[in-house]
């Protein structure tokens, strides 16, 4: 028996209430993240990655809420915690980085103050101490001249700089888990690589676990050992990254990989066009009753339409939810 | 600022040369002058009304440059003197109304926004819509009837000794519209800020609702609220005309109304100039406040 994982999500359901109706946006999602591990969550836009992440720190807003399931953090169920217990975890033990560095920071406060808040909130620092610690935190995310930069307002910084500030905020209290929701999607490619490297270094040093969310399998391949594939609110496959790239099991994963441009490959294969997955992610109200990928799937048979496939174990804690996987 | 003043002065000159009636004709209509062509000519000459518009405008501007607004046709007093006398009561009224509107409207909108859809929210917003749509004249009469005539708590009109008792009714009446508008704007501003990404970031940091509101929400909402306060402060001057007339308040508004009906052009000019100046000052103050609150707006 290995040690229990840091975070264990069991059968998570996220509902959306509209009037009397209750729609299952996220259904039966389970995965776990070990201490120091970086877990990837991949899927097209609108598949429920962000709301799954938000549910972990109790930040879902109406009309969304957790329907059932368990979110165990160090063995404690976050869904059973009261407001102040959750607030003590948020930012302190579990923190989050968002996609949009342009709007994620308060435009009217200096970045120094926004970092310093963390020390005031969670370490009982005075503002004076906290602002000194903020300079150190900014230095750690490799912002040059941090003692001057703390006095900057967000609009005086580039997108990459702001995302560094977000990382400084998120890692200020040395959390156990960092949730990074598409942290580099809004950035230039060159900046992307720097930010990812920085996150990886800092989290490795400190043994921080990461939930890395992206729609970019390339990013995931670089950062993670294990990965979960999400489609329309279902976790359809969970694998070790190496296996996933070599032998994708779910038709959706196949599609995702086929749509990846591989450097040099296109000229070799006589300019074979990139394979797009036909169709789009259905809207919440139009989710099929069976496998949610069925309408876009080339392998679909009648059984796919009627019942959601259960997990087929592939060994080593991996699974796929498909009747026709392989 | 100077181009604005020039343009406004020119506009008034043009308007008063186009609309029928002049100071002399209004005197005759009042039965204070004889309708004798000789007398009329004599009077027109005395007030300079016999000269063409462009000449009158020219000499007006030259005098204005020396801060001389001329004399009232009616009272023969210097216009500057009359304006200064009337400016303070109007400012007092406008400021009192705005203070009431801010002190009640902003917190009301704030509380309504914290629980959207609640009973308090709905009640406040229905009251705000009513406040905006009721005619001020009617509201003033109602207030007068209830608090002055029926209950006898407050004087029904006049300036009295300039104390607070006479100020209450006109100021409260004048405050209703900006109060309602401020409540609505504040609610909208707070809801707007609450859905911003940086509020989600703040929540992810683990702060409680009190800190969220005081550290992140208030200042951002304030930027939006200040715009409304500034605009309202300006348009209060227009609304004050009605209220001053109704409550016989000796301010710029009632002076303006009287002077327009008498075609006492120098006083009209002066009063409107004061109001324009007031707008410009408020705008400047709002701009300075913006620069203080919002670092994205560069100073100077
Ligand atoms: N605040 C919200 N209200 C209603 N629906 C929402 C809200 N946030 C997200 N959704 C819906 O939930 C689904 C999943 O969204 P999201 O988690 O943001 O997707 P992803 O991050 O994978 O792109 C989408 O269909 C989206 O429309
Ligand atoms: Mg997302």
Automatic annotation (TrEMBL), chain A:
Organism domain of life: Bacteria
Gene3D superfamilies (alphabetical): P-loop containing nucleotide triphosphate hydrolases (3.40.50.300)
Domain ABC transporter: 7-257
GO CC terms: plasma membrane
Biological process according to GO: peptide transport; transmembrane transport
Cellular compartment(s): Cell inner membrane
Molecular function as annotated in GO: ATP binding; ATP hydrolysis activity
Keyword hit for Repeat: no
Location, primary (coarse class): membrane
Entry's family note: Belongs to the ABC transporter superfamily.
NCBIfam families associated with the record: oligo_HPY
Protein name per UniProt: Peptide ABC transporter ATP-binding protein
Organism: Phyllobacterium myrsinacearum
